[in-house]
Amino acid sequence: MLTLKSMLSAGAFGLLALGGTLHTDAARAAGDAKVGARVYAENCAECHSTKEGKNKKGPSLFQGFGRKAGAVGDFAYSDALKASGKSWTEAELDAYLTLPKKAIPGGKMKFDGLPEAKDRADVIAYLATLK
């Protein structure tokens, strides 16, 4: 039989779990584009340009925020990315930047991911400015 103490403990655990989810969403919403530009320069710029029409090893990320994955016409994407049906929303970018190979198995991006939620939030905020 459930006691009041066990029900309160379960409720507190549930609130902690919910709080963790809210914190992750808040971290993304609170991204700093200026810091994101630095994180981008350190982790992404070798392979991705932010200039319109300038691809490198990876496609240009100019106006990439909100764009359908695999939509830069003159870039040779993997079949997996083209077939993903994804659009680069905040949530999709966060998942992809966490572990690209898990988010799109069979993709050809060689990057292992950004493990820190704050770094991802900052990069996402920066990408949103590339208009």
Automatic annotation (TrEMBL):
Residues 31-131 form the Cytochrome c domain. The keyword Lipoprotein does not apply. Pfam families: Cytochrom_C (PF00034). SUPFAM superfamilies: Cytochrome c (SSF46626). It comes from the Bacteria. Keywords: Electron transport, Heme, Iron, Metal-binding, Transport. This is C-type cytochrome. It comes from Ideonella oryzae.
